[in-house]
Each structure stands twice: as C-alpha cells, then as structure tokens.
Amino acid sequence: MSIDNGQGEKNNLIARKSKLSNTVSSLGKIPPQALDLEEAVLGALMLEKDALSSVIDILKPEIFYHDAHQKIFEAIHILFQKSRPVDILTVTAELRTMGSLEMVGGAYYITNLTNRVASAANIEYHARIISQKYIQRELIRISTEIISNAYEDTTDIFDLLDHAEKNLFDIAQNNLRRDTQKMDEIIKQSLATLEELRTKTDGLTGVPSGFTGLDRITGGWQKSDLVIIAARPAMGKTAFVLTCARNAAVDFQKPVVVFSLEMSSVQLVNRLISGEAEIEQEKIRKGNLQEWEWQQLHSKIGKLTEAPLLIDDTPALNIFEFRAKCRRLKSQYDIQMVIVDYLQLMHGKGEGGKGGGNREQEIGSISRALKSVAKELEVPVLALSQLSRAVESRPGVNGKRPMLSDLRESGSIEQDADMVLFLYRPEYYGITEDEQGRSQAGIAEVIIAKHRNGETGIVPLKFIGKFVKFGDLEEDFNPPNSFSQDSPSSGMYPSQDFEKQSNVIIRPSKMDDYNDDDPPF
Q: What CA–CA distance (Å, rounded) separates 488 from 462?
C-alpha cells in the first residue's frame, strides 16, 4: 500500500513538472522588436516629405519586423527611387500596383499609421532603434543556426567557421556604419591635430621607422595607412620590418605586434638578438658562442627584453581571426603598429582559404581587410608581399629594380595601399658598382613607388647581412666585412640630425597620375 502511494506521489510530481514546463514553453521568447516605433516611423514618412532623406541610409525593408511594414516601406522606397512624392495616397496606389494593399490591411491601415505620430522630429532616433532590433534578431538567427549545425556530425567544421565568420562580418559591414561628420567638426579635429604636431621638433607625425631618410619623406608610419613592403626572396623583407619594429618598440616605446606566418617566434627573436647584440646570426643559430659573446649578449638585450613588442606566429592566419586579434591587442596593449609577414600566406576565408573565388580575388579581399583594420584601429599596418618573377627576366642594370606592376597575384594590393615600398639590393644581382663607380657592397635601396599622401623617392640604407638588420647609411660607409666585433650599432638608431640634408632621392607625388581604369583610392 505504501509502495502504491509512493508511486502515485512520484507520478503527481512528474505531472506537475510537465505542466509547469508546458506553461513556460507556451510563453516562449519573443524576438526583439519595436512595432510601435515601426508604425511611428512609417507614419512620419508619409507626413513629412523631407523625413525619408534622413533615414534612407539606415532603413531597409527587411529591417522591419512586421511583414506588412516591410511591404509598406518597400512601396515608400520605390516612390523615392522614382522621385515621386510620398504620402497616404501615393503609398496606397503603389501598394495596389504591387498587389500588396489587402495584405497590409488596406487603405484603412495606411491611414491609421499617420494618426499614430504628430511629427517626424525624432524619426532618425526611432529608425536607429528599429535597426538595432533587426541586428539583435539577425544575431539570434545566426547563432541558432550555428548551434544547430554544430550538433550535426556530418557538418564540416571549417565550412561552419567560414559561414559563421561571413555572416557576422556581413552584419557589421551592412549595418554598423559611421555617421557622416559636418565640416566644422572635422575642422576642429584637424586643428587639434595641428596644434599637437606644432609642439613636435623632430618632424615625425607617425610611428618612427628609425631610418632618418625614410622618416624625412614619410614623417613616420601614419595612422590608418596600409603600407605594402614588397621584394623578391632574399632581399631582407623580414629583416627590414623587424628593424622597424625594434626601433619603434625599443627606441620610442611604441607597442608593436608582428604577425609572422612564415617564421616561428623564436626564429624572429633570434634575429632581433643578433642585431641587438651584434653577434652573427649563424653563431646564434648554432649556439657556438664564446664566453665573452655570452656576456655581450646578456648585457645588450636588456632593452629588448623590456620593449613593448608582441609576436604572433599563428600559421595560416585568416582575416577574421586577424581582425579579432588586432582588436583585442588594441584594447589590452594599445598597439601603435601592426606588421604582417607576409600577405600571400594569409587566407581570406576559413581554414585552407575555402570560400570560392580564385586566388587573385582572395588576395584582393585580404588587402581590403588589412586597410579596413588600419582605419578601424587607427594604426599603420605594414604588410610584406612577394613580387612576381618578372623582375628576374628584365635585362640591364636598372631592369632589376621592382615596379608596381611586379606586385604578385593582385592589382588590388596597389589600389588599396597608401604606400608601396620596394626593397632592392644591387649586390644580390652581382652589381658591385653604381654609375658613379661607388661600391654597392652592403647597400640596400628602399624605393617608395607609391605614396598617396606625399612624395616618392629612393632611400639608400645599410644592410648588415651577418647581423640580419638594416641601418642608416653613413657617408663613410664601408662594406659589411670591414665591421669589427666592437663596431658601434648606430645604424640601428635614427640620426639625431633629422633636418640635415641627405642623399635621399625625392620625386614629386604621383597622386594625380592615374587614369580611369586605375583609381588612386
């Protein structure tokens, strides 16, 4: 008897829980919406003729939650495109033409919408709230879809990641746009920047490269700029950007992050140690250091150890992951410069570059994304790039100098970049003397082929191969084998005589030299 009572109580408990569960389930969750504001906005659009121009870039038919409201705004949008007046009569007539008048509730419902609002004074604010509710619904939809697909055993995880990244990126690109600024606001910002630059005496307006001649032309790496540094293999691309990163982080305490897709973080640090301690890279790689070299190493890497220099050696980095990491590093460390080594090793989509399209289109999307990150975070992005083999096939002494047409795999790189720099070492091609008979041993040229906001030119630098670093070119520069173990490392540091004239070759800006097929921006 007691057993039966116990079983009965258990059944009653289950029944009560089931009833409670059904009650909660029947209530459910209502998607984010603002129907009253949708009605107010549509009513205001039919009341005042100038109201639509203030929200036309915010609202789209699919942003409205109610199906009827989507059709009504679609009719309003069609009238706007046809440059016809928007009011109760014209909207009703357009809906009748579309065959949707009865579906939205007839002319009576259209008339009632105008009774719900007195004026269009707050229409822009209301439109932004409607847009926010739409973004919330889209995030819920995408998240639910991701959760559902993640539970499926047959789902390709990389396809799922690619799909999720694309959908989230589309929401941000299509809905989260910066407001247009008035001229007086922009002028105030410009004057504040000029006042700040007025106090500077070194001529630098951006992140210093540490190379006097280069900084004289560029003023340093500028905020929001995408700088492409291209060269053939073995020209010293990685050594150049590492020297730039070292100079900015050690000498000027600017937080810098290096994304190395080609070399490991330990290999990069070994190069930095070689240049800082002036111990041959070969010895550091093999560990064949004398006792005095160990002492020299430990005594000179102190500043390097404390430098705000970050290295990420994640292989096959894709753009979505790169953007997320940069945002996080900007928040945590306030990074002032981003370096990518190198562009062709990145992926525009998910793992393995999946997502359709050819490689040229993918490289184009990568370069646009790099420029987007530079603008969003307001930091210079330095991206290394490979050159095509066309350089090697050109005859003549000067034929080996790179040109913009040599950029590999995509013309979008040239179009998106604010600056394009080429590295060129005549010694690599067996050119031992220039036209004036001067030795080219240990000489490197930084060719500024494109400079959207300034001059182009050629900056000669010193390349010290055994220390894997670049430096300023002194007037009495000798070939690298003449350097002794105790030679000074002043080449790693920017010259104090920034205003002093040098042998930099400067050409006028080519910003306006373009045709219709090759826009500068």
A: 14
Residue 196, pLDDT above cutoff 50: yes
Q: Please identify which residue in the block is written with the tokens 């509730």.
A: 105
d(CA 490, CA 222): 24
Mean pLDDT of 316-333: 81
Give the pLDDT confidence of 360-373 residue by residue, as tens digits. 777 778 888 888 88
Sort 115 into a burial class: Cβ within 10 Å, 0-12 / 13-18 / 19+.
exposed
- Calculate the average pLDDT of the chain: 75
Short-list 362, 365, 372, CA closest to 338: 372
Closest CA to 338 of 309, 363, 368: 309
In contact, 236 and 201? CB cutoff 8 Å: no
- Identify the band that residue 219 occupies on the pLDDT scale cut at 50, 70 and 90: confident
Enter the DSSP assignment of 248: I
SS3 215: helix
Q: Which two tokens stand for residue 398?
A: 């000067």
406: left (phi over 0), alpha (psi -120 to 50) or beta: alpha
Provide the H-helix boundaries in 99-156: 106-115, 123-150
- Give the per-residue pLDDT at 519: 42
Within 8 A by CB and 6+ apart from 449, the residues are: 402, 403, 404, 420, 421, 422, 456
> What does DSSP say about strands 456-464 and 505-507: parallel, antiparallel, or unpaired?
antiparallel
**Which tokens is 249 given?**
């982080």
Return the DSSP state at 221: B
Tokens representing 173 are 């690109």
Let me know: does 260 contact 317? Beta carbons within 8 Å. Answer: no
Task: Calculate the CA 203 to chain-centre distance.
Answer: 27
Q: What is the pLDDT of residue 14?
A: 55
For strand 226-231 and strand 381-386, is the pairing parallel, antiparallel, or unpaired? parallel
Q: State how far the Cα of 102 lies from the Cα of 100, in Å rounded to an integer.
A: 6
Q: Count the residues in the chain.
A: 521
pTM over 0.70: no
Closest CA to 63 of 30, 88, 41: 41
Mean local confidence (pLDDT), 489-515: 45
Q: How far is CA 253 from CA 230, 309, 333, 394, 459, in A?
A: 26, 9, 12, 42, 25
| pLDDT of res. 355 | 46
The 10 Å Cβ neighbour count of residue 264 is 12
Q: From CA 376, how far away is CA 326, in angstroms rounded?
A: 10
The candidate with the shortest Cα–Cα distance to 494, out of 214, 196, 300, 268, is: 214
Q: Which candidate, 221, 169, 218, places its Cα nearest to that of 381?
A: 221
Nearest to 451 by CA among 494, 422, 410: 422
The number of C-alpha atoms within 13 Å of 424 and in the hemisphere containing its C-beta is 22
C-alpha of 257 from chain center:
13
Residue scoring higher pLDDT (203 or 77): 77
pLDDT band at 512 (very low <50, low <70, confident <90, very high): very low
